[in-house]
Amino acid sequence: MQRLAAGGHMELPDFDTLRRLAVAEPERLDELLRQQIEGLIDRVSPEQQQRLRGLQFRIDCQRQLAKNNMDSCIRIAAMMHDSFYSMRSEMIQLNANLYADQAPVYRENNVVSFFDYYHKKK
């Protein structure tokens, strides 16, 4: 059983121990991972727990479908990229909707001579 650290999270073994587990006892390393994940999920609100459990299910499915650890890593990274680009697209759309009703503002005499601009910088 793992000890709880000051912040309420479990202390991890040192790197060499984790590496040894990965090579010699991968099932113990997987169990440690599951314990860490459950500990994290248990500390958030019930609404967030449901979302995190759903996300963890999707991650676990990708890990099971993967041919090896590198494939698993690539699949999970692709999930993160997809999520990021989806969020980015939504933000762009929200921003476009926010300014869609506003007429563009045109200012008179808003022309800057490149010559004047260049010489003012010197």
Features:
about 0% strand, about 70% helix, single chain
Topology, please?
Layout: H1 15-24, H2 26-42, H3 46-65, H4 69-100, H5 114-121
Helix pairs in contact: 1-2, 3-4
Protein name: DUF3135 domain-containing protein
Organism: Aeromonas salmonicida subsp. salmonicida 01-B526
Characterise this structure.
Helix content is 71%, strand content 0%. The chain contains 5 helices and no strands. The radius of gyration is 25 Å and the shape is elongated. By secondary structure, it is an all-alpha fold. The chain starts with 14 loop residues before the first helix and ends with a helix. It has one domain. The longest helix has 32 residues, at 69-100. Helix 1 (15-24) crosses helix 2 (26-42) and helix 3 (46-65) crosses helix 4 (69-100).
Poorly predicted segments: none
Quick one: overall form?
A: elongated
The biggest sheet amounts to: none
Q: How many β-strand stretches?
A: 0
Any idea how many domains?
A: 1
Brief summary of the model shown:
The protein has 122 residues and is mainly alpha-helical. The chain has five helices and no strands.
